Amino acid sequence: MARQYGGKYSPDSKKDGTAHKSTRRAEVNPVGGRANVMFFPAIVLVATTLRDGALSMSIGLAGAAVWILSAWLLREGLLAEAEFNTRKIARRPAVPRKILAGFGVGLGTAMAVTAHLDTAGDMLAAILFGICASALHLVAFGIDPLKSKGMEGIDTFQQDRVARVVDEAEKHLAAMSDAMRRAGDRQAAAKLEDFQDAARTLIRTVEEDPRDLTAARKYLGIYLQGARDATVKFADIFSRTQDRAARDDYLALLDDLEQNFAARTQKSLLDDRSDLTIEIDVLRERLAREGVRLER
Questions:
Q1: Which residue, 9, 40, 115, 159, is the most exposed by fewest CB within 10 angstroms?
Q2: What does the pLDDT look like over 223-260, one tens digit per residue?
Q3: What average pLDDT does this structure show over 85-92?
Q4: Which of 261, 217, 194, 186 has its CA nearest to residue 2?
């Protein structure tokens, strides 16, 4: 979707004459057109078997349903894989959707060939077509991540706690975006994106070091929930009245929240550095007691 950015003399620019700053990168849809094309063969199969008798029609409809389910699984698998790749620490998908989609395409292909067979003697051909279709699908789209990454030495119980908090935080952020669409204000939407960037930076910091969860849990829970409620209220008011004072108050709130979330993230990073310094000093003291001295 195209978006117009404000400049120095734009009505959506800040009071000090500077344009809205945005650090967001252009995001490419991980699904892509070739995955969406996988829905169309089901339509062709239904159209070509409707008049071929009850048996062929039934097999064709079943094959089309399997193809549609496979296409949906492929979309969900690509989205899950993209989310997996964006994180430094991530669990492998619980359900291998892309692999299941590949098997589903093979099964649907075998059923599609069977629906067009004149005799039952060519079932071997249907099976071979299905195997080839499944193999080509897996080659074209790949398989799901089969191993977690960045999980070595991490307490799984603590990581599960982090996952629950992060999922809840992402739901709050998504609800804020949905509410902002009702408001229809570019400046408020752009400022909300800046705050969401700061919040997601804190989320990634907590994911990478679950020890930060205790300190950050209030930010990712209570504060984000409050920001969500304020965004919903603002969207309801602004969509009806276009109240500029309400927008200014809301933008000021987002400014404060963005600065506080960024400060919390910075403090977490400084604490991590302090922990590293302590570990280094302790190790040097132990080496010194062993009679080993390192030249600095």
A1: 9
A2: 888 888 888 888 888 888 888 888 888 888 888 888 88
A3: 74
A4: 186
Which two structure tokens, joined as six digits, stand for 228? 């969500």
Q: What are the residues whose beta carbons fall under 8 Å from the beta carbon of 238, sequence distance 6 or more?
A: 183, 184, 185, 188, 246, 247, 250
Q: Which residues of 228-258 are buried (b: 16+ CB within 10 A; e: fewer)?
A: bebbbebbeebeeeeeeebbeebbebbeebb
- Tokens at residue 160, please? 């599960």
Cα separation, 50 vs 115, in Å, equals: 10
Q: What is the pTM of this model?
A: 0.61
Contacts 24+ apart (CB under 8 A), 35-41: 35/71, 35/74, 35/75, 35/78, 35/141, 36/71, 36/75, 38/67, 38/70, 38/71, 38/74, 38/105, 39/67, 39/68, 39/71, 41/67, 41/108, 41/112
Tens of pLDDT, residues 268-279: 766 555 555 555
Contact 88, 150 (CB under 8 A): yes
177 near 195, Cβ under 8 Å? no
Tell me how far apart the alpha carbons of residues 113 and 290 are, in angstroms, rounded to a whole number: 76
